[in-house]
Specification:
seven-stranded antiparallel sheet; mainly beta; single chain; 8% helix; 46% strand; disordered N terminus
Length: 165
Amino acid sequence: MFVGTDPLWRLCWTAEELQALVHSVLASGGRSQVAFSASLTSTSQWTHQGPFKNVSPLVFREVKTNIGNAYDPDTGVFTKPTNGLYNIRFTGSIGKSGSLNAAVLKNGENMFAIYNTVGRISSNANGMTLVLNEGDRVWVVLWPNQSISDKSGLSTFSGFLIFPM
C-alpha cells in the first residue's frame, strides 16, 4: 500500500491527502491546466539566428500549443500561472556558426543547457523537471558567438504542468 510522500500517481490516498489535493486544485482557480509548445519557425526552408556578440533571448514564435496562455510568443517567456512541478524541454539545431550553446533560464538563473560543436545539421535536446512558483519566468538564451537554425519545427521550447503544489 502506498502512503505518505509517494508520488501523485500512487494507488492509495488517505482522506487528508485527498482533501489537500482537492483544495490545491480548487485554490489554483482552474489554472491547473498549463502546457505550451513552440518552434522558432514552421517553414520548410532553413532559417538561422546568430551568431550575436551578446547573450540573446530566443523567441519561439510558431506556437503549436498554449493551454493557459502562459507562453508569450512576442517575448519567448513562459510565466508560471500557478505553483507546481513543471517539465521544461528545449531542442535546438546548430546554425551557421557550426556550434550551438544555449540555456534555459529561470528568473535569470541558468537551469540547464544544450551544447554541440559537431558542425551544421546536428541537433541537441535537454529537459528538466522544476518546482516553479507563480510568477516565475522561464526563457531560452543563445550564448555569444553561437547560432541556432530551424526547419519545419526542429528547434522547440515546451513545458507543461505535471501537478500543482
